[in-house]
Amino acid sequence: MDGVLSTQRNFKALESDVLLITTPKSDTTWLKTVLFALINRPSYSRSSDHPLLSKSPHELVPFLEIDLYVHNHDPDLSSLTSPRLFSTHLSLGSLPESVVRSKYKLVYLCRNPKDTFVSLWNFINQMRLENNLGANPMEEASEMFCRGVSMFGPLWDNVLGYYKASLKMPNKVMFLKYEDMKERPVEELRRVAGFLGCPFSENQDEPVNEILRLCSFDRLSRLEVNQNGKLYNGVDKKFFFRKGQVGDWINNLSPEMAERLDRITEERFSSFGLKL
Ligand code: A3P
Q1: Residue 74 CA to ligand 1 centre (angstroms)
Q2: Of 273, 270, 272, 258, nearest to 117 (Cα)?
Q3: Closest CA to 64 of 32, 109, 37
Q4: Where's the Sulfotransferase domain (predicted)?
């Protein structure tokens, strides 16, 4: 809460900033790498010395409320080059005023709620086990998630807020689905690049593929910098890389849990024509 309040009160958006928004475990890590590589494309022509190979995506693209403003009401942002790239899990209604009012570009990524929940459950349990707290039973966690008792609020509210905003303000808010990015990576990355004003040339797929290779799960998850050590907030870097697959819920959820999550998703999204 301290980080959220401090972000709301103190963060001053610049019109050139880009904000990447997700609910936890929607593949934020991947989008951080993709946007960082995209925006900084002119600075790194050779991928062998790319910062993504020596720094964690979470160090290169910090969370406003979890990293920058959590214990600091006035973080030093002076070394960041334009366009500055930040990330957040805040819902639309909780964003700082300066972000809502400016021309700030928002890129929102969501993921199938069943996969998001399974990823969250695994992530929290890894942290609990490390702290000798014992695993959280899945039934209990699923019950809370379905009731909307989640970090940063109910997943469905968070997604809908940004989905509606993307329909109303398509030049300000881009709405992405992880599953689409996995299925049509080249098209989706071209779309994001166009939205951010750094489009790829029409007839060349190689620069797009180069970013996708650099940011692939296989490449990044094996790097020493993502396997060892902790982030500044104390979380093991390796916990952010598990499987990176679409549909892994099938190996984890009971049919009842899956049905319940599907039912909520259908009830909340169908009247808006949104499918996840
Ligand atoms: P799984 O737990 O399903 O494997 P977040 O980044 O929002 O914390 O979400 C973490 C999820 O993103 C994890 O999903 C993790 O494996 C996946 N992930 C991290 N880096 C990725 C990458 N480069 N490509 C694809 N998925 C990635």
Answers
A1: 30
A2: 258
A3: 32
A4: 16-272
User: Best substitution site from 242, 246, 252 to test ligand 1's pocket, by max atoms within 8 Å of Cβ?
Assistant: 242
Residues with CB under 6 A from ligand 1: 22, 24-30, 33, 115, 119, 122, 215-217, 220, 240-244, 248
ipTM: 0.98
Per-10-residue mean pLDDT for the chain, 276 residues long?
94 94 97 96 80 95 94 91 95 91 91 98 94 92 96 95 96 97 97 96 91 96 95 90 96 97 97 94
> Do 83 and 17 touch, CB atoms closer than 8 A?
yes
Distance CA 38, CA 199 (A): 9
Fold (topology level) of 2-272:
Rossmann fold (3.40.50)
Residue 50 designated active-site:
no
Q: How many CB atoms lie within 10 A of CB 16?
A: 13
Catalytic residue among 58, 71, 73, 89: 89
Domain spans of the chain, in order of start: 2-272
221 Cα–ligand 1 center, Å = 9
**Both tokens of residue 216?**
């692939």
Q: What is the pTM of this model?
A: 0.95
Atom of ligand 1 at shortest range from CA of 182:
25
| 187 alpha carbon – ligand 1 mean position (Å) | 20
Dihedral angle, C-alpha 114, 216, 31, 87, nearest 10 °: 110
CA–CA separation, 46 and 49 (whole Å)? 6
